[in-house]
Amino acid sequence: MSEMPTYVPRLGHGEVTMMPPGIVDHATVNMFATKVDESQLQTYVDLVLTDRGGPSYHVLAPVIMFCFLNSPRLTSAVQQIGFVADHEVAVWVPLVERTGKKLRFVVWMPYIWVDTDIAMATGREIWGFPKTIGSYDPPSTKGGSHVLTTRIFRTFDPKKEGEDAELIRVDPASAPDKSIWKDLEAAAHGIGEGLGLAAAVKHFSLGDDLKLAVDLVEIAVSRKIPVVNLKQFRDAVDGTKACYQAIIDSNLQLTGFHGGGPLLGKHNVTITPCASHQLIEDLGLPGASFEAMFGAWVEMDFLANAGAPVWSAT
Question: Does the N terminus or the C terminus of the chain have fewer Cβ atoms within 10 A?
């Protein structure tokens, strides 16, 4: 680390990144889980993460979550800058990381949309989050629709202009009027039960099951959710190459809990098929329109802590 050059600061000169840890306060997250085709999802996991030559990554359960986040305050914990509101839509995929005989539960976010340049540039440059610009306006009434709008290309055609369009839409039928989960432990249990993670042990041997169980207990105690991303930058000379490529391990540290509970009723998810965002194929979704298996909401505070590479190409 001592041989690394000093970062040239641009604070006060149009800087659009913040130093970690990042603080996110009173984030309301509405999450909608759906069953997916495990082999299809694993193919995409291998393409992005496992085929790099470092740890291998395995789908923990045939389920992913669409998470819609709304926070009034995103800022740096170490730089006195100011804050921005944070609206974010992300796909969460629970995985098992295997390094030799060591197993670890991790979360991977292959798709993330944010609505500020600060959130996008910071996420991409520091952790490798594949953030891009999108628009998410939280519904004004309980039970309203959650809609992500972003720039899409329905087909790859140099004669056709990209368009701003709905990419993901969730139409929940109803929502609770009050919090049911009183603390993080209750929320973790309720979400894990809704996702069927306990049943995911059938994917591994008994010894591995025990290792994963211990790992999940440690996560519950530490309140740190491990996250992995492929961080890379395209080379300036040869655009087919990466001048930097690494799998970055970081964590989201939960620091406060303000309520949560299941979202009641049916939740219909609609995906706009397009060439630029092949969610249906990448994630193994059941189609362009389907019913979510589970919905929940939480309001919490968390830190996005600094990370470190678990594998690097150099």
Answer: N
